[in-house]
Amino acid sequence: MNWTTTPFEPLAGLAGGLLIGSSVVLLLYTLGRIAGISGIAAGAMTQHGIERYWRLAFIAGIVLSAVLYMVFVGDLQVQTQMSSAWLVVAGLLVGFGTRLGSGCTSGHGVAGLSRLSPRSIVATVTFMAAAIVTTNIIRHL
Amino acid sequence: MRAIIASLICGLLFGFGLIVSGMSNPARVLNFLDFSANWDATLAFVMGGAILVAAPGMFWVRKRSKPLFANKFDIPTSKTIDAKLILGSAAFGIGWGISGFCPGPAVVAIASLQTDVLLFVGAMIVGMLAQHWLKPKAA
Predict the structure, then answer these.
(1) Which one, out of A32, A114, B15, B29, has a CA that is 20 to 30 A from the CA of A25?
(2) Contact A102 B45 (CB under 8 A)
């Protein structure tokens, strides 16, 4: 199987990371909330009133960033590597798992690690390990 | 209204961060998780860069008495490490390892309007709602 290769770009990574970190700090500063995307996405569907609206605005901001990028900068590279059926299975696991585990790469991985939350440290080690094992089984077994 | 605008701006910043770093491309994320031949370590720099800002930033913000547009900080306080945390995180990790999508990048990728991305996001929403409906209601 030929997997799409991508170049190692530490500076672009660092720049993107600084933007993401700034977003996390700004959301805490203005709304007092943790920028965890899985919780925000789920709450945008299940909460009501202002609790729903600020979450919808955050999700809209993410989608808008991609639209603005495509209009003013160029192509948005999204290269999926698996079949549609596998992506559906993965989507179900990501949706259910992030809610059961109360967070994903942003809420646990960035915000949680930043405040040294023990739950987030355990969660991050767990999902990183599970992801590495899964990808390597798919690609090398 | 100010809260809504602030949240929208935070979403924009977050999305741009994912796009600039190429995290919205699942191929790049999977090439981080797969340490073999063509390892792409960019993801580690994204996490590092984000924590570099968020760790001191959150520490500083939390010393304030309250947020700008809300009455109080709403930060998880639980320290209980239970089966739900481990099983949920493991399930998420398996799905992430299959697809290369975690929730943020998946939302960014919606804009590509690729059928496979929309299928992933649809399934992710179903998974989130299923967990919401299945969980025992707090007494």
Answers:
(1) B29
(2) no
Kindly state whether residue B48 falls inside one of the protein's structural domains: yes
Q: Is residue B42 part of a domain?
A: yes
A30-71 pLDDT, tens digit per residue, is 999 999 999 999 999 999 999 999 999 999 999 999 999 999
Query: Which residues face A33 on adjacent strands?
Result: B74
The Cβ of residue A94 has, within 10 Å, a number of other Cβ atoms equal to: 31
Domain that holds residue B94: 2-134
Among the partner residues A13, A90, A99, nearest to B21 by beta-carbon distance: A13
Residues of chain B contacting A138 with CB distance shorter than 8 Å:
97-98
User: How many domains, chain B?
Assistant: 1
Residue B105 maps to a domain: yes
C-beta atoms of A78 and B24 within 8 A: yes
Give the whole-angstrom CA distance, residue A3 versus residue A5.
6
State ipTM.
Answer: 0.97
Q: How far apart are CA A80 and CA B107, in angstroms?
A: 14
pLDDT recorded at residue B139: 44
Of B33, B42, B51, Cβ closest to residue A131: B33
Pairwise CB contact (< 8 Å): A101 & B89:
yes
| Residue B40 burial (CB count, 10 A) | 21
Q: Three-state DSSP class for A74?
A: coil
Quick one: angle between helices A50-72 and B2-20, nearest 10? 40
Q: What is the pLDDT of residue B137?
A: 67
| Cβ-based contacts of B136 with chain A (< 8 Å) | none
The closest CB to that of B6, out of A30, A50, A136, belongs to: A30
